[in-house]
Amino acid sequence: MPIYILLSTLTSEGRKTIKERPERIKEVNKEIEAFGAKVLQQYAVLGRYDFVNIVEAPSNDAITRVSIELGSRGTVHIMSMPATPIDDFLSMLKK
Q1: Rounded to an integer, what distance in angstroms lies between the CA atom of residue 1 and that of residue 43?
Q2: Which of 12, 41, 51, 63 could form a disulfide with 8 if both were Cys (CB 3.0 to 4.6 A apart)?
């Protein structure tokens, strides 16, 4: 299944939610699964983004739905990027 990198930035409303209910982060991961994707790894980071998620999803359509559904709530901004495993990338270059 394709892999995607999701870079997330919380809005002020999102930061308020996380401060009041930190467990909400794990709840959202379950919601992502309901959209047909799965969070493989998740990191809280410092800098321009608040979270980096490595997600598996069946298609660009599925990950687009995840981004739209979560972003429409007004608590997070998401940048979604498809990721190619390095061995696949190298194989593609050799063709």
Answers
A1: 21
A2: 51
Cβ density class 49-70: b for 16+ within 10 Å, e for less: bbbebebebeeeebbebbbeeb
Res 15 pLDDT > 90: yes
Residue-wise pLDDT for 39-85, tens only, equals 999 999 999 999 999 999 999 999 999 999 999 999 999 999 999 99
> What is the radius of gyration, based on Cα positions, of the chain?
14
**What sign does the dihedral 23-5-80-2 (CA atoms) show?**
negative
What is the domain extent for residue 86?
A: 3-94
Quote the tokens at residue 69. 């559904």
DSSP designation for 66: H
User: What is the count of structural domains for the chain?
Assistant: 1
Mean pLDDT for 81-90 is: 95
CATH number at residue 33: 3.30.70.920
